[in-house]
Fold this sequence. Notes:
The chain contains 18 helices and 27 strands. By secondary structure, the protein is of the alpha+beta class. A hairpin with a 5-residue loop joins strand 18 (457-465) and strand 19 (471-479). Helix 3 packs parallel to helix 4, helix 11 (386-397) crosses helix 12 (422-434) and helix 17 (619-638) crosses helix 18. The two termini are 47 Å apart.
Amino acid sequence: MTHSRHNESWIEPERYELFEKPRYQFEPGRRDFLKLLGGGILVCLVWNPAAAQQESGRRGGRSRLAVPQELDAWLHIGESGKVTVYTGKVEVGQNIRTSLSQVVAEELRSPVEWIELVMADTDLTPYDAGTFGSRTSPSMAPQLRKVAATARELLIDLAAEELDVARDSLSVADGKVSHAASNRSLGFGHLAKDKKLTKRVGSEAKITAPDEWKIAGTSVPKVDGRAIVTGAHKYASDVSLPGMLFGKILRPQRVDATLRSLDTSKADAMDGVTVVRDGDFVGVAAPSVQLAQRAISAMHAEWNLPPAASDDLFASLKQAQPAGGRGFGRGNYTRGSIEKGLAAADHKLQTTYTVAYIAHAPLEPRAAVAEWKDGKLTVWTGTQRPFGVRGDLAQAFGMPDESVRVIVPDTGSGYGGKHTGEAAIEAARLAKAAGKPVKLVWTREEEFTWAYFRPAGVIEVASGVTSDGQITAWEFHNYNSGGSAIRPLYDIPNQQIAFHSSQAPLRQGSYRALAATANHFARESHIDQLAHAVNRDPLDFRLANLKDSRLRAVLEAAARQFGWGQAKPAADHGFGIAGGSEKGSYVATCALVAVEPASGKVRVVRLVTAFECGAVLNPDGLRNQVEGAVVMGLGGALFEAIELENGAVANARFSRYRVPRFADTPVLETVLVDRQDLPSAGAGETPIVAVAPAIGNAIFQACGVRPTTLPMAPGGLKV
Length: 719
């Protein structure tokens, strides 16, 4: 089985949330059922959940909806000359509203201010599989460039006809098509008035080369930036409708519990409260959040709880491999002979690394507003998969996709954690019962407990190296966390790489960079161990075993900015370096770390990151992405971890779940390696992957302790 690195139809195995069974499948009431069917003879077919999941982008499939190629599906020019562009991508803080506006403005030779993006509205925008996998820059940006270039060429055709001149005598700038010889020009709005732009988007439209960019490739200010910093910008949790009620859901202690008994009599007696029970789903809708919470608190429920998972998480992950499970991964690979490679080695090394469950901890928890009107369901929600959530809603309520509309306002971060539509489905069920719009916003505790987590994992590495520093053998097994970036880029003649699925005790799924963070931590830590085993400088050792020119370039760029090799660290300080690649982009990070001998407290003093993602679309936006990923990586590297007690999450609030704070932030330096000779790749994920191993390698130099677990120092190191 082979899969292209960037094939959107290939869903990585660690996107566990897309392989889950539907959480809700509501039964239509008899009146609704007959209303849908009318009279006559009924022949029922057995519902096939696998087929429905295939349609919604689950279980490794993608929706069968075709991506339109007609120009008017993507772009509209108004009489004022304003350009409206339609895309199914979602703005979750990564600033793609700006970068996509830039590429359109570049091809139309228009100011960015004239471009407006309509994003993530399933009734208005073309189908999109979702905003994940760092696919916006390498897939949507080229598509919109072609769309805008096609529109530009069509406008030239229209102007040539109206001005009765040769089209090659015309130029486009500032929203106008001009004929210099006669000093005449026609605005876009004039040319498009009363016309339908029906040309098919194709490869024949000439797009602008990166070395000719005037708008793309520059640090255009963030679109809607003023509204965002002043609080005027509206997010999913800000949506409000007339007559709207507020929802709350009854939750058990654990996500795997089932309802045994329920008494709602006290809640039923509360004025204005609608109580809804549908199977194990229990919730309320009320005129205020406070009343809804009081109604939930007044209920008495008893739950069936399966036996809690083993206290030894990592032992259970390695042993509990389900029969017929997804024991495959992107990068499963065998080359040469491990036995021969180990026989040729002068030094052999075996190490086990572990990675804890961590939470996405988005600034904005899951939120949704649902409204039923004239037989159609409309939901405003924060999700990275609007069309997938539309399919999930249609499936949950037994209705066609065309009767469901999902609108995604700009969303307060996702990090891969908002691929599913639980809040949307819950709000829709409450709204259906109440007969009014319902708003549901998860609490922080619900977000920590009921959302899915970055998968925990066990990684075992066995290797061999010669005395002169050549790696001869590399065996790498990842249990549960995933197969992303599992293969090394180092030139190793004998390799065996494998991902093994496990029976996990918690919901788990996509997280920024997927398993690339875990796999880079294990690999780059182990590479550092090998370098020390043969007394080689960690950077020199990497370069000696590397042929990949792009990885070499970022390693050298980071080391140069850091001053690697120019001085030795002070006492109780250490330098570390790590590098890697994922999603078509490359990163290297150098770290300066201080360790207090008495307490074992770790302080990251300085981080230098060199990043290359092909041609840069917006340098300031890219730098923000890199630095945001690096700060986020600090948490998983040093202290973030989900704690379990009797199978339940024990630290479901920020007072007990440690995330990076301002005081934790080191000096950050970012080197952007702009490769205009390469297509633009994604930047939202890859910068995080080298943070943990660079810090871990610096810790080892500072105090001689080799971290093999993530997080490395939740309570300090034992020095």
